[in-house]
């Protein structure tokens, strides 16, 4: 079972759960600070940032949701598919820990974590929202497999995608491809392109993400 740092709700009682999914080579400590930034806006939210299940080869402090070789066009698809059950089990356990229904959950991902948030979140029984920074919607190259995968989508929560226009790791074009793909599946997608920003989260992205979750949770 994966685990990671947590922040208790400022109000004392959790009514929402926000789960941060970090990028390749980072760990749960990388994103948990976003919860501190958003506590005033989301006082009833419990925050948790689990460490991904696998160590990065040659870098024990870094974690990965799945390995990357960049030689296989479908390795991301196989990666998110393999990692999904581990993440799902964690999300179910964390909701139970806070005595919350599935609809009280929001996922916030960065890079590889955004890939996991979109793949796993859209196949949950219910979800309040997804915020994806610097990531991409992962789809298989085989069209028949892609059609079958699209049929697995069970929920259509609001999605916010944020990307830097100078991203050197996942090009900004991924933002538009992901928004188009999600829109084609009937999801409502908002997006923001951060000017002059590389593979990271700037102040505008942080502000927009917090406001988006506040709205998704009904302004509570």
Protein model, in words:
With 220 residues, the protein is an alpha/beta fold. It has a single domain, classed as Rossmann fold (3-Layer(aba) Sandwich). Helices cover 34% and strands 20% of the residues. It has a seven-stranded mixed β-sheet with strand order 1-3-2-6-7-8-9, with helices on both faces. β4 and β5 form a beta hairpin. α2 packs across α3. The radius of gyration is 16 Å and the shape is globular.
Q: Name the poorly predicted regions.
A: none
Determine Rg (CA atoms, Å). 16 Å
Number of domains: 1
Q: Per the principal axes of the C-alpha atoms, what is the gross shape?
A: globular
Summarize model confidence as the mean pLDDT: 95
In the CATH hierarchy, what is the superfamily? Answer: Alpha/Beta hydrolase fold, catalytic domain
* The level-1 CATH class: Alpha Beta
Describe the strand arrangement of the main beta sheet, using strand numbers. Answer: 1-3-2-6-7-8-9
State the major sheet: 7 strands, mixed
Task: Please identify the structural class as seen in this structure.
Answer: alpha/beta
- Report the CATH architecture: 3-Layer(aba) Sandwich
Order of helices and strands: EEHEEEHEHEHEHEH
According to DSSP, the number of beta strands is 9
CATH topology label: Rossmann fold
State the end-to-end CA separation. Answer: 31 Å
Q: Helical segment tally?
A: 6
Q: DSSP strand (E) fraction?
A: 15-25%
Q: What percent of residues adopt helix (DSSP H or I)?
A: 25-40%
């Amino acid at each position: 079972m994966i685990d990671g740092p947590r922040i208790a709700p400022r109000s004392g009682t959790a009514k929402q759960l926000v789960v941060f999914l970090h990028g390749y080579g980072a760990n749960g400590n990388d994103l948990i600070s976003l919860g501190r930034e958003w506590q005033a806006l989301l006082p009833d939210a419990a925050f948790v940032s689990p460490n991904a299940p696998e160590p990065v080869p040659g870098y024990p402090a870094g974690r990965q949701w799945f390995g990357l070789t960049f030689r296989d066009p479908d390795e991301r698809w196989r990666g998110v598919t393999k990692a999904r059950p581990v993440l799902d089990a964690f999300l179910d356990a964390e909701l139970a820990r806070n005595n919350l229904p599935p609809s009280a959950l929001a996922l916030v991902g960065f890079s590889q974590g955004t890939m996991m948030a979109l793949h796993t979140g859209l196949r949950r029984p219910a979800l309040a929202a997804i915020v994806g920074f610097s990531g991409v919607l992962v789809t298989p190259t085989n069209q028949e497999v892609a059609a079958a995968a699209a049929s697995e989508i069970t929920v259509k929560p609001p999605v916010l995608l944020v990307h830097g226009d100078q991203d050197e790791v996942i090009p900004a074009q991924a933002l538009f491809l992901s928004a188009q793909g999600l829109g084609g599946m009937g999801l409502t997608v908002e997006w923001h392109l951060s000017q002059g920003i590389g593979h990271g989260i700037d102040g505008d992205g942080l502000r927009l993400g917090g406001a988006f979750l506040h709205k998704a949770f009904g302004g509570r």
